């Protein structure tokens, strides 16, 4: 829980100043321009992380952690206390403050107390506990905010106090840090109290899928047959993670997940659940999985078609994708939805065997009005060693500020192809 107000201004680097101000685009631009020398350390990122945490821009703090910020190099008095973090209701903040390299800052007794505090918030309900602490009968303002890079939470403000509704996810985080084995059904219940974009879903699903045992798998199978689409959606996400976190395609629970998801895809009627089921087949393909994806090629829901486009071409031996699947990619590269076209280009790129039909279809997208589609087509052509990628990359120019890391990953394929071609033509 926090009060209105912001951290005081100070003399700091442009990156830290942008993080303190909550200017995520500027932070991204500055990160892209940073010195990648391994001898420089990550002082700037760490200072910016500190500024982001102090000003409660938790999504920026999470991004900075991914770029190498090191919480262990931040003095404890420069960060909020763990009690403040738990009271705030921000799972991202609690995760940052209990990262593995600084977890030993807290005695077990403190972690247990904070777990109990999170449970109090969770069981009382965010709104009820906020009212109890403020004693105010006024209306509560509700908004939705980004908590980490990928998840959103509800944020409630009453008077001068603001709190987020992530205490269920925080409880799960602290239980994991304390090596407490929370029952499967309790984790599922916590997830389903929120929507699929809330960190309560990801925290519970990740914890369950990492257990790699019959109890968790049985829970996923039970969810598959539920009448409530939300329960089925969580079950599909859980099965998808069972497959994703497998050490190999031959692992027991990977095999079980692929078989179950393949069968499930034939019966599921809810588009959101079906898309999640199909995404679960995207990193492991056999003939049955490919057939399951192709069965939904013409689905009216954009999310389902995107799952199909993303799944095709990602088998362990993509060069042998069937003719039917290749034809499907041609269809999907002409889809009305831009994101579906991009996903289809990505799958076509993975095949990388110079198929003229695929390269012709990607070349046709070089004049698409959306720059993202052009980038995907350039990348795909480069992977197929098609020289048309070179001029197309030159026309696109350098990566745009704020998107450099993302765009560089597409353009580098063309740059590498051009370099290889030059090497081959040298006397």
From TrEMBL:
InterPro entries xrefs: Ankyrin_rpt-contain_sf (IPR036770), ARM-like (IPR011989), ARM-type_fold (IPR016024)
Domain of life: Bacteria
Pfam family, one: HEAT_2
Protein name: Lyase
Taxonomic lineage: Bacteria, Bacillati, Actinomycetota, Actinomycetes, Kitasatosporales
């Amino acid at each position: 829980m926090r009060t209105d107000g912001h951290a005081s201004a100070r003399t700091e680097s442009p990156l830290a100043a942008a993080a303190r101000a909550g200017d995520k685009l500027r932070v991204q631009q500055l990160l892209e321009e940073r010195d990648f020398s391994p001898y420089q350390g990550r002082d700037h990122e760490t200072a910016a992380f500190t500024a982001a945490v102090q000003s409660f821009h938790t999504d920026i703090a999470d991004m900075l952690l991914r770029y190498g910020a090191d919480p262990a190099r931040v003095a404890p008095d420069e960060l909020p206390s763990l009690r403040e973090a738990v009271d705030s209701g921000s799972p991202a903040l609690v995760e940052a403050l209990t990262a593995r390299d600084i977890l030993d800052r807290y005695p077990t007794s403190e972690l247990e107390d904070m777990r109990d505090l999170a449970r109090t918030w969770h069981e009382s309900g965010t709104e009820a506990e906020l009212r109890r602490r403020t004693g105010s009968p006024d209306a509560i303002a509700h908004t939705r905010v980004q908590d980490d890079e990928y998840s959103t939470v509800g944020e409630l403000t009453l008077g001068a106090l603001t709190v987020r509704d992530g205490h269920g996810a925080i409880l799960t985080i602290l239980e994991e840090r304390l090596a407490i084995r929370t029952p499967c059904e309790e984790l599922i219940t916590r997830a389903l109290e929120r929507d699929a974009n809330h960190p309560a879903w990801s925290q519970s699903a990740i914890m369950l899928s990492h257990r790699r045992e019959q109890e968790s798998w049985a829970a996923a199978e039970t969810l598959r047959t539920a009448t409530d689409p939300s329960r089925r959606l969580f079950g599909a996400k859980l099965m998808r993670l069972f497959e994703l976190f497998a050490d190999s395609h031959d692992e027991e629970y990977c095999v079980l997940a692929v078989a179950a998801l393949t069968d499930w895809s034939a019966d599921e009627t809810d588009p959101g659940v079906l898309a999640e089921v199909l995404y679960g087949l995207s990193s492991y393909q056999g003939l049955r999985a490919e057939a399951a994806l192709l069965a939904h090629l013409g689905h009216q829901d954009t999310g389902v078609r995107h799952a199909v486009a993303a799944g095709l071409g990602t088998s362990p031996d993509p060069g042998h994708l069937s003719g039917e699947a290749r034809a499907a990619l041609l269809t999907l590269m002409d889809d009305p939805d831009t994101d579906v076209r991009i996903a289809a280009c990505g799958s076509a790129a993975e095949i990388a065997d110079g198929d003229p039909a695929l390269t012709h279809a990607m070349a046709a997208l070089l004049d698409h009005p959306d720059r993202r589609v052009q980038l995907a087509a350039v990348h795909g052509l480069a992977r197929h060693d098609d020289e048309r990628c070179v001029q197309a990359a030159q026309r696109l120019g350098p990566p745009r500020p704020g998107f450099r890391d993302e765009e560089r990953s597409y353009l580098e394929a063309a740059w590498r192809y051009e370099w290889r071609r030059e090497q081959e033509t040298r006397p």
